[in-house]
Design a protein that fits this description.
The structure is a single chain. By secondary structure, the chain is of the alpha+beta class. 37% of the residues lie in helices and 19% in strands. It is built from seven helices and six strands, in the order ββαβαααβαααββ. The strands form two sheets. It has a four-stranded mixed beta sheet with strand order 1-4-3-5, sandwiched between helices. α3 runs parallel beside α7 and α5 (86-99) runs antiparallel to α7 (123-133). The longest helix has 14 residues, at 86-99. The radius of gyration is 16 Å and the shape is globular. The N and C termini lie far apart (36 Å). The mean pLDDT is 87.
Length: 155
């Protein structure tokens, strides 16, 4: 269990934060945001990494906002930090619920049903990225991944 002053940090085993945790915690503590998310380069838009059923479940039907989200760079799931608040708890609960629904997280659909630029579904990362940008945009601080993380695949 966590107390109201606690932080939850996730980092893949192949990655490490390149700045001290105290600095990360101060970043969130001094911000109206309660979640720190790290963005991948602009060459990786959501539309390429989200299957249609995931997009529909989280973003709903076609809207100008949805199109803007789908053309934006994906937020990675490699590492993240959460200051315990009702909003961050709601995000983690919703992320967990979506990740437990096979039709949203598992690769089962035909590529014929996907957008022409679709490459592959990024599973839990696809879900969290869309949630950050839609329902939880007001409480998410998004920063460039390379400022915070060293990952073996990033060099």
């Amino acid at each position: 269990r966590t107390s109201d002053a606690d932080f939850i940090v996730y980092c893949d085993s192949s990655s490490k934060f390149v700045i001290p945790f105290e600095t990360l915690m101060a970043t969130l503590r001094n911000s109206p945001a309660c979640m720190l998310a790290l963005q991948l380069p602009n060459s990786l838009p959501e539309r390429h990494w989200n299957k249609t059923s995931c997009i529909r479940a989280i973003c709903g039907g076609h809207t100008p906002h949805r199109d803007t989200v789908l053309e934006s760079a994906q937020i990675c799931a490699t590492a993240s930090m959460y200051r315990k608040t009702p909003r961050s708890q709601a995000f983690l609960d919703k992320w967990s619920r979506f990740c437990s629904q096979d039709h949203i997280v598992v690769d089962v659909e035909s590529k014929k049903l996907e957008h022409p630029t679709f490459i592959e579904h990024r599973h839990d990362q696809a879900i969290s990225s869309l949630l950050y940008k839609t329902e939880f945009k007001d409480c998410t601080l998004v920063k460039p991944i390379y400022d915070f993380i060293h990952h073996h695949a990033f060099g």
